[in-house]
């Protein structure tokens, strides 16, 4: 049979099913989509059961099943890699520059914070009153920040 003949027979079967289905069973929710029938057309073949598929997968001894699993894994990896959209060379260079610049900036900031904390501890150990003043200032800033954020809500 040609494709055209198959299409005609499918349309004819769908029309026959429309005549057999009562109006209450057809799904018409007001959309512009073609909801010609609530019953789908038959496939013309039996659907394979899951039990049979599981039995097929369990055939063979340990080595055969292991080799089949490894082969299937690499086959699926290859299939997935064909779906990947790889970046262009210009994109790779641009993104590499962004990552490296972010790395340099963050390391400089973290280094400055570490240097500041180290110097604060060194000065605080030499003169405890300065350490107490710095801690009081830090607590004051934390309380002020908490009150301000609570008032914004």
Helix count, DSSP H or I runs of 4 or more residues: 5
Name the helicity range: over 70%
Report the β-strand fraction as a percent range: under 5%
Number of strands: 0
Overall SS class: mainly alpha
Mean pLDDT: 81
Largest sheet features: none
General form: elongated
Overview of this structure, please?
The protein has 5 helices and no strands. It is mainly alpha-helical. The protein has a domain at 89-152. α4 (89-126) packs across α5. It starts with a helix and ends with a helix.
Secondary structure: elements and pairs:
Blueprint: H1 3-20, H2 50-57, H3 62-83, H4 89-126, H5 128-152
Entry keywords:
153 residues; mainly alpha
Structure at a glance:
Helices cover 73% and strands 0% of the residues. By secondary structure, it is mostly helical.
């Amino acid at each position: 049979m040609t494709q055209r003949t198959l299409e005609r027979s499918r349309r004819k079967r769908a029309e026959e099913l429309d005549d057999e289905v009562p109006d209450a069973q057809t799904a018409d929710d007001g959309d512009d989509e073609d909801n010609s029938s609530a019953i789908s057309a038959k496939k013309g073949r039996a659907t394979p059961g899951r039990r049979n598929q599981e039995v097929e997968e369990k055939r063979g001894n340990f080595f055969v099943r292991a080799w089949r699993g490894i082969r299937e894994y690499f086959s699926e990896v290859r299939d997935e890699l064909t779906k990947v959209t790889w970046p262009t060379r210009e994109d790779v260079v641009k993104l590499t520059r962004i990552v490296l610049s972010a790395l340099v900036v963050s390391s400089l900031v973290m280094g400055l914070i570490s240097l500041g904390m180290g110097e604060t501890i060194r000065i605080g150990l030499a003169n405890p009153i300065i350490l107490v003043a710095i801690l009081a200032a830090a607590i004051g800033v934390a309380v002020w920040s908490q009150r301000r954020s609570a008032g914004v809500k």
